[in-house]
Design a protein that fits this description.
By secondary structure, the chain is α+β, with helices and mostly antiparallel strands. It has nine helices and five strands; from the N terminus they run βααααβαβαββααα. Strands 1-5-4-2-3 form a five-stranded mixed sheet. Helix 3 runs parallel beside helix 5 and helix 5 packs parallel to helix 9. The model has no long low-confidence stretch (mean pLDDT about 95).
């Protein structure tokens, strides 16, 4: 989902440089590392999309707020990585939400509570826009999936289960969802993410 943010996030070059590169992120995570590596190898952009992002001749700095366990991050961060490779001067830095209370609070002040969050800046660190969690098409697909899996809401709303017990029961259901999500992204949801990010960055294209 694309959002234009009216307030600053107090990001400058020094703050941005404190984040991890995508390679460092992958090397240091202990959750979904193998799946992330596989997705980074498998995700490819079309020639048309590569050409569109190659037209972004001005520097673009990207801040990503995420966590390695996040399924939407697993789907979309590799897409961002391919976009950054296609753009001549786009660079990405990743920040973990659990380790960034100030940045997390700044996003929450804008009612942005989900991850991943991709915020794009120009060369002077003026915000170009922010993309949150997943595309609109992916939101619709997830909503349909949840309707066919009411057990997820039943577990979430159960008052006789501890948080730990809920996580144990969630795990196999979410594993199935993640497998299906990857199929959806191969089919058409990658195109939806790419389309939304192209629209967000289009003003900076020449």
């Amino acid at each position: 989902m694309t959002t234009i943010l009216p307030e600053t996030l107090a990001i400058d070059i020094d703050r941005w440089n404190a984040g991890m590169t995508i390679d460092t992120f992958v090397e240091t995570i202990d959750v979904n590392q193998e799946a992330t590596r596989r997705r980074l190898q498998d995700v490819r952009l079309s020639d048309q999309d590569r050409a569109a992002f190659a037209a972004l001749v001005s520097p673009v700095y990207v801040v990503v707020l995420t966590e390695p366990w996040c399924g939407d991050s697993l789907m979309n961060l590799p897409i961002l990585a391919r976009i950054a490779e296609a753009a001549p001067d786009m660079q990405v830095r990743i920040f973990l939400r659990s380790q960034e209370p100030e940045l997390t609070a700044a996003y929450q002040a804008r009612n942005i509570k989900n991850i991943p969050v991709f915020t794009f800046f120009d060369a002077d660190f003026h915000e170009l826009g922010t993309w949150v969690e997943r595309s609109q098409a992916a939101h619709q697909r997830i909503a349909t999936w949840q309707q066919t899996h009411p057990e997820l809401a039943e577990i979430r709303n159960a008052t006789d289960l501890t948080p730990e017990e809920k996580q144990i029961r969630f795990k196999p259901i979410l594993h199935v969802l993640r497998i299906e999500m990857e199929e959806w992204y191969h089919e058409d949801l990658q195109d939806a993410t790419v389309s939304e990010l192209r629209a967000l960055l289009q003003p900076s294209a020449v």
